[in-house]
Specification:
The complex is a heterodimer of chains A (343) and B (113). With 343 residues, chain A is an alpha/beta fold. Chain A has ten helices and twelve strands. Helices cover 47% and strands 15% of the residues of chain A. Classes of the chains: A alpha/beta (343), B mainly alpha (113).
Chain lengths: 343, 113
């Protein structure tokens, strides 16, 4: 490829920086305007417009390179520096940005992943939640709290659970006081209850989910009930039930049965904990002890319930407006593991 | 003579010859940074640094947008700002990639000498 006009591509790429950057500024500006106009003003899907923008940029680049090749020799700017023989060390003599700017940018981009911005963001969220918790909750405050909840969940912020608990308690309270805000306050409180659950971690005193199972004999002796599904719900394909392999006397063992069933009264020992992963179910009428729900959807309509040392980790909740549900919500945000009794 | 040469030469320390570079450092310092005369490499590195600098500035802008969101700036406006930020970053990255590919092909097919 020795044609003089085609050699212009090399000249533009490596030698005529002024013209190249002038072209590139225009290309980037036009692509930006194209994307902004189509995506934001016309409301077209971002994915679709992105691919079109790639095409626009490539076409414009080809057009500008073509135009440069077609220019007469006299119209080309004079070059002051040649690419041949230039050393990397020449970069340190560049007046514009030089080594310092380049290194600063590299260090910054590398450091950006290491600086704990999440801590700073969580502190801001805590401050805002504390401010919202002062005085009575109104519609504006609850809407703001809803926005904070969405952005915090999306960013996976680890806000201080006590701050979340305090605000959730206020929201549950507000759901009883003012009819104008009752529904919104309830929905907000239940949403924050789920967020509070995502901030919970299992303490070391709880044995981790074991990979090995119980012996068939132990399994056959121990009985537990699964949670019933309300109409319209189906068990998740990912649902798992695990038993801890720590065996303890029956009075300290895991319980998962309807209140008063006492299905394990004839055995002396049983697993200490029962784990439910990706479960969905109605907990009304259940007696649970030493249970751990992980990434589960919990539904409660305000019926009788006994919880003893129960963990809800990264769960979502669906609570029917009732006195018992309010009590359960307030109890769950206040302390984990939960101990609760409703008749 | 041999014993004398093994003695530490404290008075020679300011001399550049007394500074010992590890083999790797010497390679990057001499072979790559000072002696490598492929001007193409210098230009590509220079452009990469410019792009990196622009990306760093846009990252700062993004952090500003995040901060506004956390301070309670209306969510719909944050969406607009985030969209604008996206459309600023995308052409920049695409331009860098296109430019890099053009340079590589240009160097492959029109290399002088």
């Amino acid at each position: 490829m020795e044609h003089p006009r085609l050699l212009r591509i090399r000249r533009l790429s490596f030698e005529d920086h002024k013209t190249r950057w002038k072209y590139y500024r225009w290309i980037m500006l036009i692509t930006f305007a194209y994307g902004w106009l189509n995506n934001l003003v016309l409301g077209r899907p971002e994915r679709e417009v992105t691919w079109e923008a790639v095409g626009v940029l490539c076409l414009l680049t080809a057009f500008f390179y073509g135009a440069y090749c077609a220019r007469s020799h006299a119209s080309l700017p004079r070059l002051t520096r040649n690419v041949e023989g230039r050393r990397l060390s020449s970069l340190s003599r560049r007046p514009f940005f030089g080594r310092a700017a380049g290194i600063a940018a590299t260090v910054f981009l590398v450091a950006a992943n290491r600086i704990p911005f999440g801590v700073l963001e969580a502190a801001i969220v805590e401050k805002r939640l504390r401010m919202l918790s002062v005085g009575n909750l109104d519609v504006t405050k609850l809407e703001t709290a809803g926005e904070i909840l969405i952005s915090s969940q999306r960013s996976g912020l680890k806000v201080d659970p006590s701050v979340v608990a305090e605000f959730t308690r206020k929201a549950f309270e507000a759901s009883t006081e003012n009819k104008n805000v009752a529904n919104l306050a309830w929905a907000t409180a239940v949403g924050y209850l789920g967020y509070r659950s995502s901030l919970t971690t299992l303490p070391t005193s709880v044995p981790p989910i074991e990979s090995h199972r119980l012996t068939p004999e132990q399994e056959s002796q121990y009985a537990f009930y699964t949670l019933p599904y309300p109409p319209g719900f189906h068990p998740s394909k990912d649902m798992q039930i695990r038993l801890s392999n720590v065996i303890v006397p029956i009075e300290y063992a895991a319980v998962m049965e309807p209140i008063g069933a006492n299905v394990n009264k004839n055995i002396g020992e049983a697993p200490e904990y029962i784990y439910w992963i990706h479960a969905t179910g109605l907990i009304d009428g259940m007696h649970m002890r030493n249970a751990v729900f992980i990434a589960s959807h919990i539904i409660y309509n305000g019926g009788p319930l006994i919880l003893e040392n129960v963990y809800f980790i990264n769960c979502t909740f669906e609570l029917k407006v009732s006195r018992n549900a309010r009590r359960l919500g307030t109890s769950l945000v206040a302390a984990m593991p939960a101990t609760f009794r409703a008749s | 003579m041999l014993e004398e040469s093994l003695l530490p030469k404290a008075e020679c320390l300011p001399d550049e010859a007394a500074v010992v570079y590890s083999p790797d450092m010497a390679f990057w310092r001499d072979t790559v940074w000072k002696q490598h005369t492929e001007g193409v490499a210098a230009i590509i590195v220079s452009d990469a640094l410019k792009t990196l600098l622009a990306l760093a500035l846009l990252t700062v802008v993004y952090m500003g947008i995040r901060l506004l969101a956390l301070m309670g700036y209306p969510a719909n406006r944050i969406d607009v700002l985030e969209t604008l930020h996206y459309w600023a970053v995308l052409p920049l990255i695409l331009m860098f990639i296109t430019d890099l590919l053009t340079k590589i092909f240009s160097e492959l097919f029109t290399h002088k000498g």
